[in-house]
Design a protein that fits this description.
Layout: H1 7-31, H2 36-47, H3 50-55, H4 61-80, H5 87-100, H6 102-121, H7 129-151, H8 154-162, H9 174-189
């Protein structure tokens, strides 16, 4: 089934992800050692930017993947703090994160690299990087496989990857952002 013209149903993953990302970011900042009040202030400042307001309800990989990336960083930070999460949870969050956003592939690669360097520095056996690195590799492989399938050939894929899409640069003012937010609100919740 598809949502058709029902914007509410179509945008619900982005809405849910945006709301969950707020809570996860607050938890991450607390896990980094901030007080609850400072974590709340950091969350407000971090997500109170025009980009979050303009794109927070869009079905874009940046928004849909954001809660998974924050969750991966939160699980990693908790492990660093000595609070281990179940391996299936870590692997699941990392896998879904890698499949939802290319930005998460970068985050997972960074976490895996830091884990590997930390283990090497402490002269320990590397235990956890595969939990972060394997989903990142799987995300890259599946994304390129899908892109190859969609484009039909390696030449089509190369053309897609080497051609920039989109229009020219525009200058957005705060008034334009507020107008865009009002438009999204009006057409999303009153549809």
């Amino acid at each position: 089934a598809h949502a058709g013209r029902r914007v509410t149903q179509l945008r619900s993953p982005a809405w849910a992800g945006s709301l969950i990302a707020i809570w996860l970011l607050w938890l991450l900042l607390e896990a980094l050692g901030l007080s609850p009040l400072a974590a709340a202030a950091g969350t407000i400042v971090g997500l109170g930017c025009p980009m979050w307001g303009a794109y927070g309800l869009m079905l874009d990989t940046w928004i849909v993947g954001l809660p998974w990336g924050i969750a991966a960083m939160l699980l990693w930070r908790r492990r660093v703090n000595g609070r281990w999460s179940p391996m299936w949870l870590t692997a699941g969050v990392a896998t879904i994160g890698a499949l939802t956003s290319w930005l998460n592939v970068i985050v997972l690669g960074f976490i895996g690299l830091v884990e590997m360097l930390e283990a090497r520095h402490k002269r320990q056996r590397v235990r956890l990087p595969w939990v972060w690195a394997l989903p990142a590799v799987a995300g890259v492989v599946l994304t390129f496989t899908w892109a190859y399938w969609v484009s039909g050939s390696i030449h089509g894929l190369t053309a897609i990857l080497t051609t920039r899409t989109g229009g020219g640069m525009t200058h957005d003012t705060p008034a334009n952002v507020i107008r865009a937010l009002w438009y999204y609100w009006k057409h999303s919740f009153t549809a």
